[in-house]
Design a protein that fits this description.
Blueprint lengths: L9 H43 L2 H19 L5 H13 L3 H10 L2 H8 L4 H14 L3 H9 L2 H4 L7 H14 L4 H4 L3 H21 L29
Helix pairs in contact: 1-2, 1-3, 1-4, 5-6, 6-9
Length: 232
């Protein structure tokens, strides 16, 4: 006897939507809790280290804590992870801001943004990332392409940048300066790229000159693998 088969009937479609929606909400909730946990860990370690006010103590406590946590919970709690937690807590000392960020950005987003030293650049990337729903790959590409430096707002006074970022938070839409690219910087980048291609064409791949890129600053950005949550 052949089993009764339901194709894409309204019943099947509705049930699938319910399951997919529940999975998504669960993934978002788990991510937010994990990111908040990492901030709390970083904050707690910072309190202990700052209380001692000794750099050597900080190095020793992180190493010892990593060994103990690895024994208790397995891989994923090494020194690198603990330092990421500390950096996250240093970048965002206000827990209210952390709650907001954790609700909308993944830990993979947050640890990339927290690595930025300039607070204004951090806010720039976190707000645009949140508003435009960038993936981790898109965030990496925009940071590596120096999106902040190429935007017109980067040439404004700090007070202006802070004001525009605050407007972005309140109105949920970027100002023109956040989106417009600096024409002078774009022209400079274009000239540098043309010069690099010319040198490469003249020197060939085997020439030392072929690898030179006049006037270009090189910036190393660590690529961090996205942590994925599988729900079944």
């Amino acid at each position: 006897m052949n089993p009764f088969i339901l194709t894409d009937t309204p019943l099947v479609v509705d049930i699938r939507q319910l399951i997919d929606g529940a999975r998504l909400r669960a993934a978002v909730a788990v991510n937010a809790e994990l990111a908040l946990l990492y901030w709390q860990i970083g904050q707690r370690i910072r309190q202990d280290i700052l209380g001692e006010k000794r750099a050597d103590y900080g190095e020793k406590i992180v190493a010892a804590l990593a060994r103990q946590l690895t024994l208790s919970y397995g891989r994923g709690w090494g020194q690198r992870q603990l330092r990421l937690c500390i950096r996250f807590a240093q970048a965002y000392p206000d827990v209210a801001i952390v709650h907001t960020l954790c609700a909308e950005l993944s830990w993979s987003h947050l640890r990339l943004i927290a690595a930025v030293d300039d607070p204004l650049k951090r806010d720039f990337y976190s707000e645009l990332c949140r508003l435009e729903r960038w993936s981790v790959r898109q965030l990496q590409e925009r940071m590596q392409s120096l999106l902040f430096e190429r935007s017109a707002i980067s040439r404004q006074p700090e007070a202006t940048i802070e004001h525009d970022l605050q407007v972005l938070r309140q109105e949920q839409r970027p100002s023109p300066d956040l989106l417009l690219k600096d024409p002078y910087l774009l022209m400079s980048i274009s000239h540098q790229s043309d010069a690099a291609r010319t040198v490469k064409g003249q020197g060939g791949l085997g020439s030392p000159r072929a690898t030179e890129t006049p006037g270009r600053d090189r910036q190393n950005v660590k690529r961090i693998t996205t942590c994925q949550i599988a729900l079944h």
